[in-house]
Amino acid sequence: MSKKPNLSAVKSAVHKDKFKHGSMAVVFTAVFIAIIIVINILVSALTDRFPSMNFDLTLEGLNTLSDEAVDVAKSIEEDTTIYIIGSEDAVRGDQVYTNYGLQYSQVANLADRLQEQNSKIHVEFIDPDLNPTFISSYPDDNLTTGKVMVSSEKRNKVLSVTDLFSIQQDTTTGEYTYYSMVDGALANALYLVNLDTVPVVAIATGHSEMLTAEDNLSSFVALLEDNNFEVTTFDILTEEIPEDASVVFIGTPTTDYTTEEINKLEAFISDAEMASSRTLFFTSYPTQNWESMPNLSTFLAEWGLQPQSGVLMETDATNVLTTSEGSASPYLFANVSEDILDGTYSNLIMSNSAPVERLFSANNDIVTYPVVETNDTAYVASMEEDIAAENPETDTHTIVALSQKYMDNQGKITANVVVDGSSESLLSTFVANSTFGNQAFMTDFVKLLTGTTDTRVGLSVNQVETNTRDIAASAAVMQFVGLIIFTVLVPVVVLAAGLVIFLRRRHL
């Protein structure tokens, strides 16, 4: 006779098995959630330590360093600090310059990434309200919220909001477009404050110059400073030429120099013990009366250069910026001599240019070169005559000329005299607009004159269009998204999955 099964024992075993499996599911779920939380904590810590681990979801890669900026950061050998003026919460939360719609958090994001590249780079936030002592230590720099000071033992560089961002308005639609220059501005500042020596461009005043740093050279000065040149001004009537000057810029003077002032120029450019190349850079204008300035004219003639009166015109409509069919125009497209610079400078505009005559090609140890020339369809028109002359005599004319003298046997140090017949080519209309080749040409030409072409004096500060609706531009937004995903969404999904498994097994 067979034995009856112990039903109670079976039920008890089944119950214990269900409990066992249910408990294991709960334990597994709890452990998994704990792991997710630990991973989130570790990821948060790592992203704070390594900012590049944060994904850059901006359309233009606003929070990603350029290759050039990375190279600069890695080259820093001395302790350098990026001081961001403002509370850290306000900066990272895009609460700085909110009225302008700027994504100021990008400054902190890119500063973090520069710091990540090199342990010599440090980032600090200075709240003016909490640290007034720091602010008062730099009274000449006017350190207010939104500015950035990059500092080394050698020097400081202060960046304003206009160095970091640009806002441009469409004159037709009235709409504003926002551009970021943070990447290049920070990298340039890092590079500048670590240079052993900085090329100095000294702008001469005292002779009613048509071009001055205070009036119409602001974009030219900004271009030089963006490329890590130091710009200063001096009155040649009453002051000596700055000892550290590499370039003396004389922006279209309207009165003659005295004998004493000419002696200053000659001493500057003919110093046999100069440690680096030096340049006298003159600009001219079609109506400038050089006959009334015999001292300056004689000095330039000794260097083989003679600026002329009259305005250069074009007969070919394809060689000018704007023109009606068959009419002449002084807005010339010009060509850079490949013997001087081998770069490509499309749309180089030489507006209202006066011709510059080279009196000789070579004379003893002085050699002259054409730097910028017209096309062979240009002609010289007298300002007193109708500039749209009939059947004019056309030819190639020099607009920018260089006279050069080698000062050492290695050919590395030169004394340079430049005459630029187009004063207007240095105005903001052309220098500040990257559509024209003036910006790139002047940058490369000044680097050539100062002997800094073989080493980076600065990197170009590119404008990158930004968008205030870009979700990844704000660090606060990224942190919020990360919080939702890793601390809420993922654990909830895991918990729900574990609960479903537990309930299914319970009813087996």
Q: Can you describe this structure?
A:
The protein is an alpha+beta fold and 508 residues long. The chain has three domains: 66 residues; 124 residues, 3-Layer(aba) Sandwich (Glutaredoxin), CATH 3.40.30; 250 residues, 3-Layer(aba) Sandwich (Rossmann fold), CATH 3.40.50. Helices cover 33% and strands 21% of the residues. It contains 13 helices and 22 strands. The strands form six sheets. Strands 7, 8, 9, 10, 14, 17, 18, 20 and 21 form a nine-stranded mixed beta sheet that branches. A four-stranded mixed beta sheet has the order 2-1-3-4. Strands 5-6-22 form a three-stranded antiparallel beta sheet. About 3% of the residues have low confidence.
Q: What would the keywords be for this entry?
A:
single chain; 508 residues; alpha+beta; Glutaredoxin; Rossmann fold; nine-stranded mixed beta sheet; four-stranded mixed beta sheet; 13 helices
Helix content: 25-40%
Number of structural domains: 3
The residue-averaged pLDDT reads 82
Main sheet overview: 9 strands, mixed
Radius of gyration: 33 Å
**Using DSSP, what is the number of strands?**
22
Contiguous helical run count: 13
Beta percentage is 15-25%
Helix/sheet category: alpha+beta
Shape: elongated
CATH class annotation of the largest domain: Alpha Beta
Q: Please give the CATH architecture of the largest domain.
A: 3-Layer(aba) Sandwich
Uncertain runs: 454-458, 467-476
Q: Tell me the distance between the termini.
A: 32 Å
In CATH, the topology of the largest domain is named: Rossmann fold
